[in-house]
Amino acid sequence: MAEKAAARAEAARLVAAFRAAGAVEVEADILQPAEVLLDLYGEDIRARAYVTADPLRGEMMLRPDFTVPVVQMHMAEGAEPARYCYSGEVFRKQEHPTARRAEYVQVGYEVFERDNPVAADAEVFALFARLLAPLGLRAATGDIAILTAAVRGLKTLETRKAALLRHIWRPRRFTELLERFGGQAPVPPSRAALLAMLAAGDRPETGPHLGLRSEAEISTRLAALVEDAKAPPISAEEVGRLEDLLNLEAPSPAALAHLRDLARDLPAIAPAVDRMEARLDALARAGIDVGKLAFEASHGRTTLEYYDGFVFSFHAADPELPPVASGGRYDALTEVLGQGRSIPAVGGIIRPGLVADLGGLA
């Protein structure tokens, strides 16, 4: 009880600060329709969601996060520029009894802004940095847009690029695919056997048609496997440059300089690198010491899959603790939920329970 009271006290301070920054406080139902959320949150939270069946409303979920419900609300009401804040419990299953809490309070701040997304990125990060400054946390940043641009710029089949993009948030699977597409790993035995059968003019026997895929979809999939087998591997140079990007960790100015060098051979990333430079300028104007701000190109690859640009987090010294705060840009999410409308958006959440555990903001 004392822990919850301390978390709620910190949450009240944070909400007051967000309201002072111009946000309107909103709420979201604890029980949310599961169908859309399961599609949008990604594998990590999908596996950890509390899902139940309602006799009238169908499959429902205890909210694992606020962002998607807030975006749904905003897009339904017109998708105009706005700032929101919120506070309440979220629920996520944990695999081990000593792991993170399954129920905890989350406080957040979301900005929907058309005119200057880079300035909005800087606004959210700088606000969080100022509020959390008493805790002496370590900040880390990244940019999913640079990674996705690099993958889209590869000289290879669109199906390969689509597979890599789908698995950006699963680093191990991404690495396995990159090694296979680059000719550095053998084709799995089951696929090799299937390809040999197709090369001989045979089609695998599948018995009565079952499942969600039609016969036409199965044929298309088999044709894509054959096309992939015949395509040349991604060049070692391209694989090397992509690995160089994925492994990049440096203070932001040094990272920016390295990315400029990489862009000479990976021109597809140049627009995203331009946005990064503009964002660093905006952060500096907002009072952030960008010379000490860490940039990790792979940052955000194990978080929510709806982030598609700038990502950030704030960490305590204890590596066993989850991030005290995290967030990022999610422009594509507004388009998915907007039914024809979209608006650039960025936001973040803070765990007030962790803030209290670390000494609080008062």
UniProtKB/TrEMBL annotation:
Which ranges carry the Aminoacyl-transfer RNA synthetases class-II family profile domain? 18-343
Per the UniProt record, one Pfam family is tRNA-synt_His
Q: Tell me if Transferase is a UniProt keyword of this record.
A: yes
Alphabetized, the UniProt keywords read: Glycosyltransferase, Transferase
For this protein, the record's Gene3D superfamilies field holds: Bira Bifunctional Protein, Domain 2
Recorded GO MF terms: glycosyltransferase activity
Against InterPro entries, the record matches this protein to:
aa-tRNA-synth_II, aa-tRNA-synth_II/BPL/LPL, HisRS-like_core, HisRS/HisZ
Stored NCBIfam families: PRK12295.1-5
Q: Which PANTHER family match?
A: HISTIDINE--TRNA LIGASE, MITOCHONDRIAL-RELATED, HISTIDYL-TRNA SYNTHETASE
What is its quaternary makeup?
Homodimer.
Write down what this protein is called: Histidine--tRNA ligase
Classification from the root reads: Bacteria, Pseudomonadati, Pseudomonadota, Alphaproteobacteria, Rhodobacterales
